[in-house]
């Protein structure tokens, strides 16, 4: 179902958030964190007493210390692992090496996602008419997710780029597609700040995906062009579908 705040203007590139937009990310992350904690308990005797909850608590502490990490989940998780090891006396070089091994264990599990066939069908249809890119603060990998046939590129924080709602990723996506104006980009995502505000701050158009009515309790300070409650409603973006 659609709810319009403004008429959509012509666009030539569609960007999608990944986590909690194309799939429910909560269970995926909980499983990945547990898999990582189990690996740590087996492989890192220095911190084998720390369970998944303890690592989450440390991660939150690290994020509060360095706000720049809050929108770069890969850097935040890596910094958390290094901090935990260093606190137990592991030397810096070994701590970083172990943390990178741990991150790979985490990334395997966090990309073990089953995506609804209806979502795949939507991406397939949209990709036949528009170039699609992923714009995500998380570390989901379009190749590991099996989505590389539909997305021409993916943009994540890192290498000097800040995460949403900073505009860095939207700028990179627009430059990569050689857009001549920001509003030629249409961004679709679930988060009222990272996705809606971030896209509008750049000058892009925005569609807010709100699958649960409870999500409406947190409103963006600026309204998107439109809101949808089901991703399948986006079939209407295909030329000639209306």
What does this structure look like?
This protein is of the alpha/beta class and 242 residues long. It has a seven-stranded mixed β-sheet, with helices on both faces. The protein folds into two domains: 2-23 and 115-237, Rossmann fold, CATH 3.40.50; 26-110, Four Helix Bundle (Hemerythrin (Met), subunit A) (Up-down Bundle). The protein contains seven helices and seven strands; from the N terminus they run ββαααααββαβαββ. Helix 1 (25-43) packs across helix 4 (92-110), helix 2 crosses helix 3 (73-87) and helix 3 crosses helix 4 (92-110). One of its GO terms (molecular function) is hydrolase activity.
| Number of DSSP helical runs | 7
Mean pLDDT: 93
CATH top level class name of the largest domain: Alpha Beta
The CATH H-level superfamily of the largest domain is HAD superfamily/HAD-like
Name the helix and strand elements from N-terminus to C-terminus, one letter apiece: EEHHHHHEEHEHEE
Label this structure with key terms.
Phosphoesterase, 12% strand, alpha/beta, 242 residues, Rossmann fold, magnesium, HAD-like_sf, single chain, seven-stranded mixed beta sheet, Four Helix Bundle (Hemerythrin (Met), subunit A), 2 domains
Give the gist of this structure.
This is Phosphoesterase. This protein has 7 helices and 7 strands. With about 240 residues, the protein is α/β, with parallel strands linked by helices.
List the helices and strands and how they pair.
Blueprint: E1 2-4, E2 13-16, H1 25-43, H2 52-65, H3 73-87, H4 92-110, H5 117-127, E3 132-135, E4 151-155, H6 168-176, E5 185-189, H7 192-202, E6 205-209, E7 226-228
Helix pairs in contact: 1-4, 2-3, 3-4
InterPro entries: HAD-like_hydrolase (IPR051400), HAD-like_sf (IPR036412), HAD-SF_hydro_IA (IPR006439), HAD_sf (IPR023214)
Keywords: Hydrolase, Magnesium
Cofactor: Mg(2+)
């Amino acid at each position: 179902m659609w709810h319009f705040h403004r008429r959509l203007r012509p666009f030539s590139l569609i960007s999608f958030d990944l986590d909690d937009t194309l799939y429910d990310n909560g269970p995926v992350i909980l499983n990945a964190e547990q898999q990582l904690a189990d690996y740590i308990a087996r492989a890192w005797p220095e911190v084998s007493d720390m369970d998944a909850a303890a690592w989450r608590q440390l991660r939150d502490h690290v994020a509060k210390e360095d706000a720049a990490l809050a929108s770069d989940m890969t850097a935040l998780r890596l910094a958390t692992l290094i901090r935990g090891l260093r606190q137990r006396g592991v030397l810096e070089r070994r701590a970083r090496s172990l943390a990178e091994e741990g991150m790979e264990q985490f990334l395997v599990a966090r990309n073990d996602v089953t995506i609804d066939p209806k979502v795949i069908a939507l991406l397939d249809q949209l990709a036949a008419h528009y170039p699609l890119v992923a714009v995500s603060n998380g570390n989901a990998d379009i190749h590991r997710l099996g989505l590389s046939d539909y997305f021409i590129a993916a943009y994540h924080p890192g290498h000097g780029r800040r995460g949403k709602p900073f505009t860095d990723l939207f700028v990179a996506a627009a430059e990569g597609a050689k857009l001549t104006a920001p509003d030629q980009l249409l961004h679709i995502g679930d988060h009222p700040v990272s996705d809606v505000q971030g896209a509008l701050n750049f000058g892009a158009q925005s569609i807010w995906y709100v699958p649960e009515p409870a999500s409406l309790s947190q409103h963006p300070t600026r309204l998107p062009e439109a809101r949808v409650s089901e991703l399948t409603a986006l079939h209407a973006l295909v030329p000639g579908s209306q």
